[in-house]
Amino acid sequence: VTERVWWKDGTVYQIYPASYKDSTGDGLGDIPGIISKIDYIKDLGVDIVWLSPMYESPQYDMGYDISNYEAVHAPYGTVADVEALISDCHSRGIRLILDLVINHTSDQHAWFKESRTSKMNAKRDWYIWRPARYGAEGRRMPPNNWRSFFSGSAWQWDEETQEYYLHLFAEQQPDLNWENPVTRKAIYDSAIEFWLKKGVDGFRVDTVNMYSKPPGLPDAPISDPGVFEQPASMLFCNGPRMHEFLREMNQLVLNKYDTMTVGELPHTPDTAHVLRYIGSNDRQLDMVFQFDIVDLGQGKTNKYQFEGYALSDLKAVVEKWQSFIAGTDAWTTAFCENHDQGRSVSRYASDLPQWRERSAKMLALMMCAMTGTLFVYQGQEIGMINAPKDWSIEDYKDIESINYYNSAVARSGNDPAVRDHVMKSIQILGRDHARLPMQWDATAYSGFTTNKNGAWMRTHDEYKSINVASQLNKSDSVLNFWKKMLSLRKEYKDLFIHGSFKGFDMTNEKTFVFAKAFGKDKAIVVCNFTAEEQKFERPGVNGKFELLISNVEGVDGTESVLKGYEGRVYLVN
Ligand code: TEU
């Protein structure tokens, strides 16, 4: 854990190409737009950029449906633009990792187009085709009862060849057949080596535990057939050959380069199982994302049946994933936003006008004190918040929430109570909240696009009061607090990045108090997750508390009461 490498000490900044900066005026972000912001990115104090998919794609799932791994989505630019971005990052000492989406391709990928032409096609076995089952009265049925993450069956009937193909996500995202070694080799060459040769420094690996399906593709253990979506199915995740496939991916391609890989590892609550993916002596992945924090409050039958959560739940999951690498050769990650999540200020604190800035700073203070590689999502650094609650379903674009909204409302016979509950869940958890255009300034459409009809997605109504330009030169802005915290994280990297974590007063539903320790160095972090003043329990550690930073001006740290949404870091010596 104490080994020093660039991907442990570096902070990662995630960029969503569609929503970062439009340089052509077509209303969609693009690669030259990102390049135009490279000095802003450098000034943030981040070290690595993670670029979400920019590959050629019909965009059913915002680029996570790739039709050519070796080409760039034309409205985003060209391969040469990505090469320019790589060199512009490297010339500033910033590394660039791409998104590796290899559980599935787009149904427009040449491989799938060939595969679906006939059962005898050489690429038929590059995807997962199965004959139909037939019910009692001869009714045609899918090969099993699996449900897609995007609602509906995980199987799509193909009239041409009279078989179904599997798609864990959208029907336009057919799953690749990883059982076929020829397919795996093509993936390694086209999706991975093609970009490593151009100098990318690694990958964020999409759905990294879904490639190995359970043999025989058995029915899911759905207890209640009336439940439209089985709980995010553990059935798809962590199949029997997963570790074998990842070892092969390292041996055949990744190990030839100095790369970093961070895996998206959903639905794996067992820490011992997670450790099997990230032990550095058995190289599969360098680290993974765990989703317990961002999954808080999601419904048991479906994400968009929000059930709420308690602060003690959040504290427990933070402690679990901060502590599980202790004494191992593994590494962990720290994040509370990405392109699939609602905004953290809105979800975990308060986005009310009087609290949103202080909330954003408190969350910055908490995240920058976390062990592991820290990930910051575009807009988090300026305290962007969820879309206003008066947006209608028509203002949303994401296939995941729209499909669920339509299926849940239809299944309920248009019950207004169901519609309202799903809409409320989308207002908190919707993936679109992370995909509103980045808010650069107070000019039209938040300075994201010059298109007079606006951007591909509605701009936040608050962009005039939440934007980069208004914060750059304001010493107490969210942006400058993030920059300060990122520099403190580096200054105290042993404590913050590599230190051990210990929670205190964990059942307290108002405050979060934890200690970080490294050798004899110790720091205490205290956060008030309420708008009311709260006393906090000073942990029983011996030594003098010296205030390092608070997100509230004029605090000297001797106060035994925290103000609303106040966070403090103390050094103990
Ligand atoms: O997400 C994988 C995944 O499991 C998602 O269903 C995720 O759990 C859910 O969206 C959280 O609400 C990855 C990408 O991050 C996502 O954007 C893609 O839609 C998905 O894979 C398919 O590639």
Automatic annotation (TrEMBL):
UniProt GO MF annotations: alpha-amylase activity; glucan 1,4-alpha-maltotriohydrolase activity; oligo-1,6-glucosidase activity; sucrose alpha-glucosidase activity
Position of the signal peptide: none
Record InterPro entries: GH (IPR017853), GH13_cat_dom (IPR006047), Glyco_hydro_b (IPR013780), O16G_dom_2 (IPR045857)
Coiled-coil segments on the chain, per record: none
Keywords, ordered alphabetically: Maltose metabolism
GO biological process: maltose catabolic process; sucrose catabolic process
Residue span, Glycosyl hydrolase family 13 catalytic domain: 14-435
Family the entry assigns: Belongs to the glycosyl hydrolase 13 family.
Protein name in the entry: Alpha-glucosidase
Native species: Hyphodiscus hymeniophilus
Lineage: Eukaryota, Fungi, Dikarya, Ascomycota, Pezizomycotina
